[in-house]
Amino acid sequence: MNIGILGAGGIALDRHVPAIDAHPELTFWSVVSRDAARAAAVAESHGAAAPQPAHTDVRTLLADPELDAVLIATPDRMHEAHAVAAARAGKHILLEKPMATSVEACHAIEDACQEAGVTLAMAYHMRHHAGHRALKSAVDAGAFGTLRHMRIHWTFAAPDGSNWRARPDTGRWWSLAANGTHCLDQILWLMTGQCGEITRVACIQSHAKFSSRHDESSGVLMAFESGATAEFFVSVQIDSPSRLEIYGDSGWARAEDTMGRHGAGRIETHAGPIAYTPTDPFLEEWTDFHRAITGNRSPEVSAREGSTNVTWLARIQHAAKERHPVAGNLSPETN
Ligand SMILES: NC(=O)c1ccc[n+]([C@@H]2O[C@H](COP(=O)([O-])OP(=O)(O)OC[C@H]3O[C@@H](n4cnc5c(N)ncnc54)[C@H](OP(=O)(O)O)[C@@H]3O)[C@@H](O)[C@H]2O)c1
Questions:
Q1: Nearest CA to ligand 1 atom 7
Q2: CATH number of the domain bearing residue 81
Q3: Which residue owns the Cα nearest ligand 1 atom 43?
Q4: What is the torsion angle, in degrees rounded to the nearest 10, for the CA atoms of residue 174, residue 175, residue 177 and residue 183?
Q5: 9 lines ligand 1 (CB under 6 A)
Q6: Which residues of 306-324 are buried (b: 16+ CB within 10 A; e: fewer)?
Q7: Are 26 and 84 contained in the same domain?
Q8: Do 186 and 329 share a structural domain?
Q9: Cβ of 49: how many Cβ atoms within 10 Å?
Q10: Each residue of 73-105: pLDDT tens digit?
Q11: Best residue for ligand 1 mutational test, from 11, 179, 185 (most atoms within 8 Å of Cβ)
Q12: What is the pTM of this model?
């Protein structure tokens, strides 16, 4: 299966291309960059296999009949245009998180994929972390009893305020889009099966280090239908070890340094450690994407889940702006 890359930046070249190379059924085929010299350099240095692998126009990359699927890893604001174009060209899509920057854009992507009959998988690689999958199995098996609370802390120190996520033409959220969307995905994945949907959210944000117009830190609280609660803190202001905790009536789990790109870290529980063999979550993600296409089944993280995630990101941002908690039954304009 031949894979084209839109957005040959950090995550695409550091993690996705090595994962594609490691997968026996996938070939890194072609790439698009706004800069012709860069497109050619990336294609050559990473061994893109197409006869004409380097493009400056997304349309010429997508017009290639030998191209089967694309990775979309462009800035968040561009996901809608790129995903809709890829779907209309009949290409399967692995789409980096967050799905888009508005609920309407998510629906446009979903509709285009449905009309074209292509697979869309959301690239929440933390879903493929072997330790988190073992934790999910333990939660579902009732190892912690009735869930009452979950908490995630995940930060990194941005060097300055120049990141595209801090600019309105390329991003809508900064800390929420960099790390928060992953935290929200983990919380929804681990809790909703037992606790039902989120019913309300509250959020306080900081812009204190870079004076950015977008969130540099976000502290988010949420409640579920069952009465369970969850919280996450994400930030681009500070480096710190990550932690994920989950608490139930009959036990708890604490994951240290599992949030990230590497697939490693330790998970302790009230009953001792959860043993697992670390794997590359990006390779697992591509394996799942390939199986979803060839097996004509849903991927691990569907378009619907991507869209739900963006709905809550928008509500969280609204709660931060309005400085009061926001409930689930909002009118469309707050989305
Ligand atoms: N799963 C994860 O954990 C994870 C981690 C990081 C990022 N991501 C997601 O992956 C996507 C890309 O993030 P990244 O960190 O890889 O970003 P990045 O390093 O800045 O790469 C983005 C690429 O998009 C291209 N691009 C096209 N139009 C652009 C514009 N107007 N401004 C800036 N770049 C533009 C650029 O390539 P050219 O200059 O060659 O055109 C750039 O190299 C985002 O959606 C992000 O949320 C996911």
A1: 11
A2: 3.40.50.720
A3: 9
A4: 180
A5: yes
A6: bbbbbbbbbbbbbbbeeee
A7: yes
A8: yes
A9: 13
A10: 999 999 999 999 999 999 999 999 999 999 999
A11: 11
A12: 0.96
